[in-house]
Amino acid sequence: MQKYKKQKKLLSFNNYKILKSKEVGYLGAILHLAPFNLSGINICPQDSKGCIAGCLNTAGRGQMNSVQKSRINRTNYFRYDRQKFLEQLDAEITKYKKYAHNKGYKFCVRLNGTSDLSFEKFKIKDNKNIMELHPEIPFYDYTKNYLRFKNKLPKNYYLTFSKSESNNHIVNDLLKTKTNIAVVFKKLPKKYMGRKVIDGDINDLRFLDKQNSIVGLLAKGKAKKDISGFVV
């Protein structure tokens, strides 16, 4: 078994968009793992060349070697000792929701900051997943895994589908539903694919978005140089 160190802390508050959520009364926590196969296991099963090239894994503090090592170690912790990882995640959420309440904020959690794992499948205790253990907290994520929309999700788990250069056929199917779709643009249009485009960079609170929307995200970092079609 590959060695890893148990992490003192799994969740973080140090994300620019997460911090912007405080402006509308939410204290958000985010989990960052090592994306695609950087840790030796692919935790982004529907990744594409474009999203890998433009990944925000190295944005901000992610450029630091120490941060990258922590994300890889955290991913190995999840891989090799999943039950303890999930129990620690549960304990941290219990702690932080009390902290947020004491500070006068509502609390929310984004589990896939730099991953695309189906957390709804992982049972922790009493045959419940992390969302079911904390039904009063909104959880939210972006995902390219369209299969997740085919199963019944916890009522407090909100998923936004992410468009890439290689999943237009899935996007076309989802446009027939009310599922919100995130698209990375060079410049935000008012409408795209017949839907109103909302500014997804104002904050990170995707669970507050109106249904049937295109969540517009401006290309950042490496994505500004995209030529794959990932950036529209």
Report what the structure shows:
The chain has 232 residues and is α/β, with parallel strands linked by helices. The chain has a domain at 11-164. The protein contains six helices and nine strands. A nine-stranded mixed β-sheet has the order 1-2-3-4-5-6-9-8-7, with helices on one face. The radius of gyration is 17 Å and the shape is globular. The model has no long low-confidence stretch (mean pLDDT 89).
Concise description?
With about 230 residues, this protein is an alpha/beta fold.
List the topology elements:
Layout: E1 11-12, H1 16-20, E2 26-31, H2 49-53, H3 65-80, H4 82-102, E3 106-110, H5 130-133, E4 139-143, E5 157-162, H6 168-174, E6 181-185, E7 191-192, E8 195-199, E9 214-218
Structural class: alpha/beta
Percent of residues in β-strands: 15-25%
Helical content stands at 25-40%
- Number of helical runs? 6
Number of strands: 9
Quaternary state of the chains: single chain
**Low-confidence runs of at least 5 consecutive residues:** none
Q: What is the terminal separation in angstroms?
A: 42 Å
* Main sheet: strand order: 1-2-3-4-5-6-9-8-7
> How would you characterize the largest beta sheet?
9 strands, mixed
Label the overall shape: globular
Q: Give the H and E element order.
A: EHEHHHEHEEHEEEE
Question: Can you give the mean pLDDT?
Answer: 89
Descriptors for this entry?
about 230 residues, alpha/beta, nine-stranded mixed β-sheet, 9 strands
